[in-house]
Amino acid sequence: MDLRLPTAGETLKIGTRGSPLALAQAYETRDRLATAFGLEEDCFEIVVIKVSGDDRSMVEADKPLKEIGNKGLFTREIEEDLLSGKIDIAVHSMKDMPTTQPEGLLLATYLPREDVRDAFVSPRLGGIAELETGATVGTSSLRRRAQLLNRRPDLNIVEFRGNVQTRLRKLGDGLAEATFLACAGLNRLKMTQVPATPIAPEDMLPAIAQGAIGIERRLDDNNTAALLDAIHDHATGQRLAAERAFLFTLDGSCETPIAGLATLEGTTLHLRGEVLRPDGSEAIADAISGPAEDGLMMGTELARTLLERAGPNFFDWHADPAS
Ligand SMILES: NCc1[nH]cc(CCC(=O)O)c1CC(=O)O
């Protein structure tokens, strides 16, 4: 098959949300494709797509995402435009992506992974241990909330919805002593002035796929598939295969506190996973290692082990999150 490269007249249309982080990820994708094929920027078009999850009335209401219902909240409109041909590829934070995609779409191209760690963000303090008893911490992530309460049941956790900029503004307004952000987001936004201290994965296991950008395409679009092959990062693909198989088997959603991280050591893959009760009262963690190409199997097996150890009803709420 002859590869058709995009041109200024027939551009490759890159769909993305409009947040500064989403745009940075779309530009990175464009730049990598341009470099790989020696193309100018004008061979590409960034198409910003409004998604229901970005609706201001929802974001400003500080409603927990789980109350809005997260299924496809940040992806539905983008995937519709991909299926209808309005865009050729869609760029996503893999951390926010469901483990299955709509029929006709494929999400299997990954850029080299950024820093996977969470960061402790506070104008005055340098880490969780420095938080005073009963201190107020802002996060909308059920995982971070459960992990924090597991270690520090005394903390007062408040909802911090919105994009990176919104959450930093809330911190600046004094609504909390500290918040948590993915290092990857801060790095991609080049926000070096933010008072952030990275947390070792052993202290706070990151979200599945944290720090990874994924590129989705139409399943039958072979030309785009060949373009994307040139920028795919195989190591990130192996790590995410294990992490996402783990998530898939746990049947995870934004409503379930799940953490996991795969690392590569030569051709050996190490996968660590954790599930928590939503109120943080219990955490179960385990790990598995094996050949890198067996990630899918290892993720499935680790999830089964944790499910068995957790028993039924593990993920039920044991405390009213609003109180
Ligand atoms: N849920 C929002 C989201 N999705 C991806 C990132 C950061 C970048 C990444 O992990 O790839 C963030 C913000 C955050 O958690 O601080």
UniProtKB/TrEMBL annotation:
<dbReference type="GO" id="GO:0005737">
    <property type="term" value="C:cytoplasm"/>
</dbReference>
<dbReference type="Pfam" id="PF01379">
    <property type="entry name" value="Porphobil_deam"/>
</dbReference>
<comment type="subunit">
    <text>Monomer.</text>
</comment>
<comment type="similarity">
    <text>Belongs to the HMBS family.</text>
</comment>
<comment type="function">
    <text>Tetrapolymerization of the monopyrrole PBG into the hydroxymethylbilane pre-uroporphyrinogen in several discrete steps.</text>
</comment>
<keyword id="KW-0808">Transferase</keyword>
<dbReference type="GO" id="GO:0004418">
    <property type="term" value="F:hydroxymethylbilane synthase activity"/>
</dbReference>
<dbReference type="Pfam" id="PF03900">
    <property type="entry name" value="Porphobil_deamC"/>
</dbReference>
<dbReference type="InterPro" id="IPR022419">
    <property type="entry name" value="Porphobilin_deaminase_cofac_BS"/>
</dbReference>
<dbReference type="InterPro" id="IPR000860">
    <property type="entry name" value="HemC"/>
</dbReference>
<dbReference type="InterPro" id="IPR022418">
    <property type="entry name" value="Porphobilinogen_deaminase_C"/>
</dbReference>
<keyword id="KW-0627">Porphyrin biosynthesis</keyword>
<dbReference type="InterPro" id="IPR022417">
    <property type="entry name" value="Porphobilin_deaminase_N"/>
</dbReference>
<feature type="domain" description="Porphobilinogen deaminase C-terminal">
    <location>
        <begin position="240"/>
        <end position="307"/>
    </location>
</feature>
<protein>
    <recommendedName>
        <fullName>Porphobilinogen deaminase</fullName>
        <ecNumber>2.5.1.61</ecNumber>
    </recommendedName>
</protein>
<feature type="domain" description="Porphobilinogen deaminase N-terminal">
    <location>
        <begin position="12"/>
        <end position="224"/>
    </location>
</feature>
<comment type="pathway">
    <text>Porphyrin-containing compound metabolism; protoporphyrin-IX biosynthesis; coproporphyrinogen-III from 5-aminolevulinate: step 2/4.</text>
</comment>
<dbReference type="InterPro" id="IPR036803">
    <property type="entry name" value="Porphobilinogen_deaminase_C_sf"/>
</dbReference>
<feature type="modified residue" description="S-(dipyrrolylmethanemethyl)cysteine">
    <location>
        <position position="254"/>
    </location>
</feature>
<dbReference type="GO" id="GO:0006782">
    <property type="term" value="P:protoporphyrinogen IX biosynthetic process"/>
</dbReference>
